[in-house]
Design brief:
The chain has 360 residues and is α+β, with helices and mostly antiparallel strands. It folds into three domains: 17-179; 201-249, Roll (SH3 type barrels); 258-338, Alpha-Beta Plaits, CATH 3.30.70.100. The chain is built from ten helices and eight strands. It has helices at 2-15, 19-51, 57-85, 89-123, 137-159, 165-181, 183-198, 239-244, 272-285, 321-338; strands spanning 206-209, 214-220, 224-228, 234-238, 247-249, 258-266, 296-302, 307-315. The strands form two sheets. The protein has a five-stranded antiparallel β-sheet. Strands 6-8-7 form a three-stranded antiparallel β-sheet, with helices on one face. It is elongated.
Length: 360
């Protein structure tokens, strides 16, 4: 009788799952349920709170965190179930390390997407983040992605207990070689980032370089800046040169207005009050000259051949400088001719003390 009972129990044990398998299944199911519960809590609480704000940045951050967190709970449950099964040490070691590697990859992908979203939001508000602009957005996205994946590789190396010394040495040598090979390109890239961060000039600004080039800024790239001159000629200047140059930004002041200085010389003996009146009247009658601030006339010096005056007036846009000066000079010349005000030209008197003797 006892022998028959033992045979029956042996047959039952063949069909019944081992207790470790049952525990592993329970652990996996518990992990899945826990992940569902965490996802439900995030949907019911955090997402509702984020939906009350005006910005959608917090919604994106929650979405980027929710997915890898749920997957991490499930993968961690699988790893715990594998350990609980009591498999061979090598099989369990490889399986657990592989699961943790998948967790690192999941978080790396999510973090790379989160950084891209943050950089995109920062580029839409360049007044707060000067360096991050639509033109520099690809650079920050690529650099951020490289840093995240480099960190992920380091973590994976630590998970598998590998010796990272050789990898680090190789990376250092490769980085040094690339740095020497792309020295000029890197200097232009870095200078471009600092130019955008410092906001020395921006698109549609009229600038003058210390080398004499004057033009409208049409493009600020990662490697170069483009200027469009008044002759419709485009000049491309490397950012490394722009970063070291002395730049005069004619539209960079608090107002777009620009003051003109028009020097005028009249002959000695001219009526000073009449000259002042003529210069002011010409400035007031010209439509390109702004009425506020008012135009002024200054008597600057007794010159070698003339009384030196200077007409100070304002224009609304620096691009009008050439036309405005042309119209002012034409108007001044007409009024001076009308009122017989003489514009002198340099004269020199030569006195000969002694003539050379005649040579026959």
């Amino acid at each position: 009788m006892n022998h028959e009972i033992e045979q029956i129990l042996q047959q039952i044990n063949v069909y019944l799952p081992d207790s470790r398998i049952a525990q592993a299944v329970i652990i996996v199911l518990a992990a899945v349920l826990l992940s569902r519960l965490v996802s439900l809590v995030i949907d019911r609480t955090l997402k509702r709170l984020a939906g009350r704000t005006q910005s959608d940045l917090d919604d994106k951050m929650i979405s980027f965190i929710q997915e890898p967190l749920v997957k991490t709970i499930v993968l961690a449950g699988l790893a715990l179930a594998v350990v609980n099964l009591g498999l061979d040490d090598k099989i369990a070691f490889v399986t657990v390390k592989l699961l943790f590697t998948i967790i690192v990859i999941v978080w790396t992908l999510s973090l790379a997407g989160l950084l891209k979203s943050l950089f995109g939001a920062a580029s839409s508000t360049p007044e707060h983040f000067g360096a991050i602009q639509p033109t520099t957005l690809p650079l920050f996205n690529n650099v951020g992605k490289m840093l995240v994946w480099a960190l992920a590789v380091f973590v994976v190396i630590e998970i598998w207990n590998l010796d990272a010394t050789g990898w680090m040495a190789s990376a250092g040598v490769v980085g040094l070689a690339v740095g020497f090979a792309a020295k000029d390109t890197l200097s232009n890239l870095i200078a471009g980032v600092f130019i955008m961060a410092d906001a020395q000039y921006k698109i549609n600004d009229l600038i003058i370089l210390d080398s004499g080039e004057r033009g409208l800024v049409t493009h600020i790239g990662l490697r170069s800046t483009r200027l469009l001159t008044r002759d419709d000629i485009e000049i491309t200047v490397p950012n490394a040169v722009m970063g070291q140059a002395k730049i005069t930004n004619e539209t960079g002041g608090p107002k777009p207005q620009r003051r003109l200085r028009v020097p005028v010389g009249v002959a000695y003996g001219s009526d000073i009050d009449l000259v002042r009146e003529i210069l002011l009247r010409v400035a007031l009658d010209e439509k390109l000259i702004s009425g506020s601030p008012e135009a002024h006339v200054r008597f600057r010096a007794f010159g070698a051949s003339s009384l030196d005056f200077e007409l100070l007036c304002w224009i609304s846009d620096p691009l009008l400088k050439g036309r405005a000066i042309d119209l002012l000079l034409c108007g001044i010349d007409r009024e001076f001719r009308k009122h017989r005000v003489e514009i002198p030209f340099p004269q020199q008197d030569v006195y000969i003390k002694q003539l050379p003797p005649n040579v026959n």
